[in-house]
Amino acid sequence: MQMLSNYQVSGCNAREEKGMDYFALTIAGLGGQGALVIGRLLAEAGMSKYNHVSYFPNYSAAMRGGESECTIILSNEEISSPAWLEPSSLILMGPAPLEEFEQRAKPGGLVMIDSSLVTKQVSRKDVEVFYIPASKTATELGDSRVANFVFLGAYLKATEAVSLELIEEALEKRLAGGKWDALLSLDKRALREGARLVERRQGVN
Amino acid sequence: MGEKVLIDGNEAIGRGAIQAGCKYFFGYPITPQNEIPEFMSRELPQIGGVFVQTESETASVYMVYGGALAGARVMTSTSSCGFSLMQEGISYIAEAEMPAVIVNVMRMGPGIGTGGQHGQTDYRQVTKGGGHGAYRCIVLASYSPQECFDHMQLAFHLADKYRILVLVLSDFIIGRMAEPVELRTLSFDEPLPQKDWALTGKAKKGGMRRFYISGLIMSPPAYHQHMIEKYQTIVDSEIRYETYRDEDAELLLVSYGSSAKMAKGAVDRARAEGAKVGLFRPITLWPFPEEAVRGAAYRVGKVLVVEDSPGELVEDVKFAVQGRVPVHLLGIWGRYTPRGLMAAGSGIIYPEKILQEMRSLL
Amino acid sequence: MKGEAAKEKIYGTPKLRVPIPFSMFCPGCHYGIIVRLLCEVIEELGIEGRAIGLAGVGCSFGPFPMLIDVDFTACPHGRAPAMATAIKRIHPEAIVFTVQGDGDLGAIGLGCFMNTLLRGEKLTTIFLNNACYGTTGGQMAPTTPWGMRTTTTPKGRDPSTTGFPLHAAELTATMKGVAYSARCSVHTAANFQRAKKAVKMAFQKQMDGIGYGFVEFLSACPPNWGMTPVDCLKFLSERMIAEYPLGEFKNANAIELPGEWM
Predict the structure, then answer these.
(1) Do C79 and B62 count as a contact with CB atoms less than 8 A apart?
(2) Per-residue pLDDT tens for C209-243?
(3) Closest approach of B122 to chain A, Cα-based (Å)
(4) Do B135 and B25 fall into the same domain?
(5) B near C: at least 3 beta-carbon pairs less than 8 Å apart
(6) Does domain C31-251 have CATH number 3.30.460.80?
(7) Has residue B120 been placed in a domain?
(8) Contact flag A54-B178 (C-beta cutoff 8 Å)
């Protein structure tokens, strides 16, 4: 078995730091939290802005309860690998062990965790950390299940990988037919609220 | 250029099959290929096709056998343990030289309990044959959803061209990962033989009947001589592989399927750091690109095989280089293994690990 | 020529019987009679142009495909119903039938057979019950009657260790998708005629698109039963029929589907 420290790699992809034309995001959560839903949505929306996108979900065989994560890559150049141990951004939706998870953050990268579920602080000093009270915010909006959209809104505000409008467009396409109108409007509010949380923080900074 | 849609490897298999004119699917649920039968059950009835959910992979493979005998383009899909169950039928299909396509979306072996994980532990079974009778199947190893889509068309073409069973090998990662896939129609500029041997009823064949007796071969030497010649023709004309940034390489990665994806990422990053590395990716696992691997390995001088397995592809690579070039292996021990029994993210040899291994060899 | 009666041929070899000048079966075996019966039925129904046969493993394996002049394949053990399913689904206009022995259908292929019935396929099955594994040397089959000696039940079949005989025709009749199920024999001329009627009916159910047709044949196996052909007839009419009564177990003109299912 390999120790995690073996994976510490110094080399960074230059593209990720200079141009904003490459984004690699891993979203981790528990099955049912909707990590994969927003991941796939981000990839779908990304198709209209980037030449290449990839979406790679990784989850256990059972339908519920296991840990699940997905990696989304948006790029203007061809995507070689759909998964990296150390993507440029990490969102931890669930209560998974932070000590382990934060080690996967790339130096200079971005980490988002749910401050209403995880009370610990990220110990890494070389990453930008966002403490997003996603579950709390979602509950206040009316349904704890839209915490995933709070995160997505926050991520997009922080990185501007794609616009919120593109996500909303992709979401509308997916929830077309009128049957899902209530859900659609809740998802959109959660998305906007997530963005506002980051905006407020950026204002303070 | 065809329309581009964001679909995963499993859906790409289904769409590719329909693009190839396959209207008949017989399958049994097993993770991680369930999206294929689910897709087929939705789509096939709309185009006048047939989807049958079988009671077992044994039934699936024999329905494929029956369907091929009936002269239609037919397929099934399964994953590792289900593929094991099909071996007997595969032997008979191969022996009767029936054209058909079977998709194996691999998962980690050996157990049912390891089935929720990625893995590439079926290499020997798909390339050397798990059944009886010294048969061969063409094996196409897809490494992206686009290739899954294209390979299904190629698979049906080759199956009909040579009257042979073609296996399309995907895996957990390819099956689930989504990328924009161009829904293009591949054209193969060669005529295919008529299926005048098919069981369709005598009336459709001008009163001529056909009969087959599985496994009954009057002269085994003559039969095997015929098969040897047929297999040689395929070896001579159907080998496929891809080389990537290997022109001036000092280390050659050899990898297939999803591991080749990760390896490609590692090669890109290593090249960005100035390291001279390249990738050789076999696309046909049988016929194996033996000479091409040998040529590339001799030119580069050092080989690293990457596969999520205890080491199976590495045997063919070692055989190809005949001991004249060092062949290293990054196998299943290269996986990232976080704490937590069900932790996602496990079961993957990430590009970072491959990069680290390459550094130690350069 | 004057005074001589004109000869009219009123009986002969069926047109569909491939003229191989020997029966391919052991002396006293009933399979040759069943081959003839199938040839006659297919001819009389006028379906030889669209009939496709599938034989199972056993004594039906080679001879049935060779002797009956329609499209035919012999299948690996027990899998004929699965292969037949695919052929029928691909060519719905074809009349697809399987010929399977008791080891093939009743043992190794029972799951495959039952699932084919469960799917309600429109097929016809001729089930050959000779109470033993004929080809492999007379071992116990699922249909071996109690007390019967076989090469794997040297003291006679003992229900306490080998269970109970399979009543395939009765079992089949209980399945919803089955339109016709009968058990016949060909050990007398009268039974031959009854059997022919039953097989015709089993094909007719498929031709009319009603459902599965199944006919079980009791059949003698002199070498493995260790009896003369004549003694076999006696054993069949006394012991076999006592265990496996002849007759129709189901004859449905329609299979009712649930009215509202969505």
Answers:
(1) yes
(2) 999 999 999 999 999 999 999 999 999 999 999 99
(3) 19
(4) yes
(5) yes
(6) no
(7) yes
(8) yes
Task: Give the end of a domain, one of B212, B237, B262.
Answer: B237
Whether A82 sits inside 8 A of B177 (CB atoms) is yes
Q: Do C74 and B216 touch (CB under 8 A)?
A: yes
Q: What is the pLDDT of residue B339?
A: 63
Closest residue to B70, CB basis, from C62, C65, C87? C87
> Residue A84's closest chain B neighbor by CA?
B350
Q: Which fold has domain A18-204?
A: Pyruvate-ferredoxin Oxidoreductase; domain 3 (3.40.920)
Residue B195 belongs to domain with CATH number = 3.40.50.970
Candidates B66, B200, B202; nearest CB to C86 = B66
What ipTM was reported for this prediction?
Answer: 0.94
Locate the chain A residue with the closest alpha carbon to B107. A61
Q: Please tell me whether residues B81 and B169 are part of one structural domain.
A: yes
Give, for C100, the enclosing helix (H) or strand (E). strand C95-101
- B332 touching chain A per CB within 8 A: no
Residue B210 located in a structural domain: no
pLDDT higher at A29 or B89:
B89
Q: Identify all chain B residues contacting A86, using CB atoms and an 8 Å cutoff.
A: 352
Partner-chain contact B262 A81, CB within 8 Å: yes
Q: Among B237, B266, B295, give the residue marking a domain's end.
A: B237
Three-state DSSP string of chain B: CCCEEEEEHHHHHHHHHHHCCCCEEEECCCCCCCHHHHHHHHHHHHHCCEEEECCCHHHHHHHHHHHHHCCCCEEEEECHHHHHHCHHHHHHHHHCCCCEEEEEEECCCCCCCCCCCCCCCCHHHHHHCCCCCCCCCEEEECCCHHHHHHHHHHHHHHHHHHCCEEEEEEEHHHHHCEEEEECCCCCCCCCCCCCCCCCCCHHHHCCCCCEEECCCCCCHHHHHHHHHHHHHHHHHHCCCEEEECCCCCCEEEEECHHHHHHHHHHHHHHHHCCCCEEEEEECEEECCCHHHHHHHHHHHCCEEEECCCCCCHHHHHHHHHCCCCCEEEECHHHCECCCCCCCCCCCECCHHHHHHHHHHHC
Give yes or no for B257 touching A (CB within 8 A). no
Q: Do B272 and B192 share a structural domain?
A: no
- Please judge whether B180 and A53 are an interchain contact, meaning their C-beta atoms are less than 8 angstroms apart: yes
Sorted by where each begins, the domain ranges of chain A are 18-204
Question: Residue B311's domain spans which residues?
Answer: 242-361
**B287 shares its domain with B233:** no
- Across the interface, of C73, C82, C86, the residue whose CB is closest to B211 is C73
**B269 close to A (CB below 8 A):** yes
Chain C residues inside the 8 Å CB shell of B65: 75, 79, 83, 86
Cα C190 to Cα C169, C184, C185: the distances in Å are 20, 11, 9
For A72-98, give the secondary structure using H, E and C.
EEEECCCCCCCCCCCCCEEEECCCCCH
Q: What is the pLDDT of residues B129-179, one digit of tens each?
A: 999 999 999 999 999 999 999 999 999 999 999 999 999 999 999 999 999
Per the structure, the count of domains in chain B is 2
Which among B153, B119, B150 has a CA at the least distance from the CA of B257? B119
Q: How far is CA B134 from CA B94, B95, B271, in A?
A: 9, 9, 43
Q: Which of A132, A101, C83 is nearest to B336 (CA)?
A: A101
Instruction: For an interface test with C, give the residue of B63, B88, B102, B197 to mutate (most C CBs within 10 A).
Output: B63
Chain C hits for B55, CB-CB cut-off 8 Å, are 111-112, 115, 118
Looking at per-residue pLDDT, the higher value among C212 and B109 belongs to C212
pLDDT in tens, C63-78: 999 999 999 999 999 9
| Neighbors of chain A by Cβ distance (3+ pairs < 8 Å) | B
Shortest distance between the Cα of B349 and any Cα of chain A, in A, equals 9
